[in-house]
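sorry for the late reply, my laptop died twice this morning and i had to redo everyting from scratch. anyway the thing you sent over, i finally got around to it. pasting the sequence first so we're on the same page, its 474 residues, then the predicted structure underneath. double check i copied it right bc i was rushing
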Amino acid sequence: MEENDGENNPPELQQVSLEQSEDLFQSALEEEVPLDNDSDIFAEESVTSDPTGQPGQAPTTQSSAPTSFPTNRMHRVTTEELQQHGANGDDQYVRVSITEPQKMGEGMSSYMAYRVSTQTNMQFYKKSNFSVYRRFSDFLGLHDKLIEKYLRSGRIIPPAPEKSMIGSTKIKISNQADQGSSGEFIERRRAALERFINRTANHPILRVDPDFRDFLESELELPKATNTSALSGAGVIRLFNKVGETVNKITYKMDESDVWFEEKVQQIDSLDNHLKNMLTRVEALVYQRRELCLCLAGFSKSIAMLSNCDEHNSLSRALSILAEVEEKVEHVYSQQCDADYAILYELLKDYVALVGAVKDVFHERVKVYQNWQHAQIVLNKKREAKAKFEIMGRTDKINQAKDEVLEWESKVERGQEEFENICRMIKKELERFELVRTQEFKVVLMRYVESLMNNQQQLIQIWETFLPEAKAIA
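ok and here's the structure:
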């Protein structure tokens, strides 16, 4: 479902064959893009593309109703804002926007489809502007493929949004009349999917992955990712595997010999705890502001009713104006509540998940170390068995024992090499993570302070207009 016929393609963007794209992908793996401030793998928001034309096969069912959920675009931090604070390095880009969530089908077999629009100037892609429709399970399937390919090598894979059975069920059973009841959930999911895709698109290796490219531009419907279903057999197996992984993380402690990793593990654990604590506080702040808005709305109505029954003209007029002022104040606090959620809460929630991805990479290193040490233990046993056969003169067993020793020596060498490689890769990825985290938090905090200042200025102006009315009470 292409967005246009490529008429807007820049001259430098040329279509490449499958073989050429594979060669380019391998070259990117061997020679990674140098780390710079513009290579933001955790960008908060993409640039909304403006492709022309209509997709070839757009969903025909009704779209979800508009929602006033606080993740509106006026409060979001865009990619340009992040890039303005970084150096201009790599000029190549892949920018993705996710829009037009539409319900496909009816009943429990229905699902949501999202329009994925892409702008790019990279040779890996056939066009510079294109769009496809993807369902939520396609996003999860892409994430699973990237995990399978890159986690063991030590790369930090941006986490995909979690599957919500309650939210999904609400969408399935809702109709056009009560679509607003699930509109907030749909908007939250849409925004989370957009952040996930853009974090992946801004990674110098993940953005040229063949599966990621197919996800963005393939006109064909992607194979259904059945393993992403929470109730499927694969989902149950995945749940048990996660439990086993969790137990392994708790029970196995690696004898750390690298001071750098020892310090980083402690730093990441501390960061995880503080982020979770701050997330809880911001969530409470959002709840309190919403409660304040409700109280102000009730207070405004009470003052309005009081002004109607007051016989004193000047006092009645002042109370009536005060009711209007309280309504305006309630609106300003509502705006601030939206900013608290869209700017701070979503950022912290994303970084709690991102820190979890970092910890997964650390655990993968431990697993690689375990395999290496296991191979070393087996090799020692094979050497002992070979020595026993030589002492006993068992010539019929010696040759087999020698072959086994050589085999396990090779496994030990491969295990050591894999461990050294994942250590190097983790250090590189952590450097990128720390750079982007500092850069993104700086931009987000500046944006949040600006929202606070603007709202406070509005409050001052509102109360300044009421002050003469209060003084005029005779």
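The first strand starts at residue 94 and ends at 104.
thats about all i looked at so far, will dig more tmrw
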